[in-house]
């Protein structure tokens, strides 16, 4: 685990933003990583590094083999459920997924989130991203409204589609061709005749497969 390899000289609190360097030997993709972090985290770092030799590990030992157990104790102290109602587990990997999900929510460019997550491909970043229901709702509601012209055109198409559906159903139920279709060749004219007179201009034609 990279955290077990960190030393005081791994941190640079003078840069903007502050950074932490992870050696290639412990990096997940075997390359030296220089990861930036926010000002709120930078305020917490001095308490861990003050008074310690620059090249002495801050958290030595093999505690990471019991990392899950340690995290469970922290959850009890913080009154946080280790397993939620959906069966999702709060472990160290979940913390990473939460970090990447937050990056994707605030980053202007997904490529920025990929770089900060130290992923080699965007597919890895997307795999660690889990937008919640509220995030999905906020995104949909943030979509710009349809222009009035598009709305009016959509209403017209919907009206035509409904009328056409009515005509198809009515013709099917009558079991015959409309005489007015033969006369006018216009299905909408046929519908107008019915609406105006209330008389069905229907006559069964000689057997022709209709």
Set out the fold topology.
Blueprint lengths: L10 E2 L5 E5 L10 E5 L1 H4 L3 H4 L17 H12 L13 H15 L3 H8 L4 H6 L5 H9 L6 H27 L4 H6 L2 H11 L13
Helix pairs in contact: 4-5
Distance between the termini: 77 Å
Class inferred from helices and paired strands: mainly alpha
Q: What is the multimeric organization of the chains shown?
A: single chain
What order do the helices and strands follow? EEEHHHHHHHHHH
Descriptive report:
- The protein is mainly alpha-helical and 210 residues long.
- It folds into three domains: 1-61, no CATH class; 65-143, no CATH class; 148-197, no CATH class.
- Helix content is 49%, strand content 6%.
- The chain contains ten helices and three strands; from the N terminus they run E-E-E-H-H-H-H-H-H-H-H-H-H.
- Strands 1-2-3 form a three-stranded antiparallel beta sheet.
- Helix 4 (92-106) runs antiparallel to helix 5 (110-117).
- It is globular, with a radius of gyration of 34 Å.
- The termini are far apart.
- Mean pLDDT is 75; it is low at 168-178 and 201-210.
